[in-house]
Amino acid sequence: MKVIDIWKSASKPVVSFELFPAKSNEAAEKLDKTIDALIELKPSFFSVTFGAGGSTREGSYQLVYKLLKEKKVDVIAYFAGYGLNPADINKVLDDFNAAGLENLLVVRGDPPKDEEYTPHPDSMSYADELLRFIQPKYEFCLGAAGYPEGHIEAQSQDEDLKYLKQKVEAGSEYIITNYFYDNVYFFDFVKRCEKIGINVPIIPGIMPIYSIKMMNILANLCGATITDELKKGLADLKPDNKEALISFGVNFALHQCRDLIEKGIPGLHFYTMDRKDSVERIVKQLADEDLI
Fold first, then answer.
1. What are phi and psi of 114, to 5 degrees?
2. Distance between CA 283 and CA 270 in Å, rounded?
3. What whole-number distance in Å separates Cα of residue 4 and Cα of residue 211?
4. Is the separation of the CB atoms in 52 and 111 below 8 Å?
5. pLDDT (tens digit, 9 = 90+) per residue, 84-103?
6. Which of 58, 176, 184, 263 is most buried as measured by Cβ atoms within 10 A of its Cβ?
């Protein structure tokens, strides 16, 4: 099912989860258990990431296929086209299409960390170029990434929003945002989108706090602000008390989600990092409160 129809037909905000392909046999076993646990929460769909320069191309396809064919759930496949030539792009998308995939989230993608990597000379540099390449050829429901605090490489939030509008004009039917720790950033982003004529569903991304180290690394990579409120809450925890940290992260995310739901968002998209415990606790509590 196309995700745009899921959001349109839902009477309450829907829940979805992001996964990334496992990189070892041990990780694959853990991922299988995570998937089975998350499916019990009845998500509306999963999303599957796609590595820089096609680095997880085969693993991404296998995970998409497993979810679609074995688990019988709807899927958004990320497609990061950085460095790929048009023939490679067509091959990836043809394979997704043949597997029955209906939804893509199209992003530029980051350059691979391998210093020797050279992008193909015919590759596309921006997500709106990829969208314009894909949209006439395929019937995927296309989406784009949004950045409530601005993309880390953007010169300004206004410039970043200009590029987002170009992605919508190029065929994006929905936006899934980067995570944030203060809902003010999200609601301000939505208002600014509306003001310049972006009128597609905007789905907030939620990242529970799994560890302080991971939080700091990811925030540094994507530009998410670690707020003073969050810093104070973490500082009050006893060092090395992992359960206290996880419970704090769950409660912090619950507070965010309740506020987002109260203000009418179409859905919540959780960045699971291929983990299940925190999102299980969050989603079950929201369901018990009859919010989702």
1. -65, 115
2. 10
3. 33
4. yes
5. 889 999 999 999 999 999 99
6. 176
What whole-number distance in Å separates Cα of residue 178 and Cα of residue 168?
17
* SS3 letters across the chain: CCHHHHHHHCCCCEEEEEECCCCCHHHHHHHHHHHHHHHCCCCCEEEECCCHHHCCHHHHHHHHHHHHHHCCCCEEEEEECCCCCHHHHHHHHHHHHHCCCCEEEEECCCCCCCCCCCCCCCCCCCHHHHHHHHCCCCCCEEEEEECCCCCCCCCCHHHHHHHHHHHHHCCCCEEEEEECCCHHHHHHHHHHHHHCCCCCCEEEEECCCCCHHHHHHHHHHHCCCCCHHHHHHHHCCCCCCHHHHHHHHHHHHHHHHHHHHHCCCCEEEEECCCCCHHHHHHHHHHHHCCCC
Domain definitions of the chain by residue range = 3-288
The residue count of the chain comes to 292
Confidence of residue 114 (pLDDT cuts 50, 70, 90): low
Can 139 be counted among the known catalytic residues?
no
Q: Distance between CA 148 and CA 125 in Å, rounded?
A: 22
- Tokens 């291929």 label which residue? 274
- Domain 3-288 architecture: Alpha-Beta Barrel (3.20)
Task: Give dist(CA 243, CA 251) in Å, integer.
Answer: 12
pLDDT computed for residue 112 by the predictor: 66
> What is the rounded distance in angstroms from the CA atom of residue 27 to the CA atom of residue 164?
34
User: What residues form DSSP beta bridges with 46?
Assistant: 17, 75
Most confident of 17-26, 106-115, 280-289: 280-289
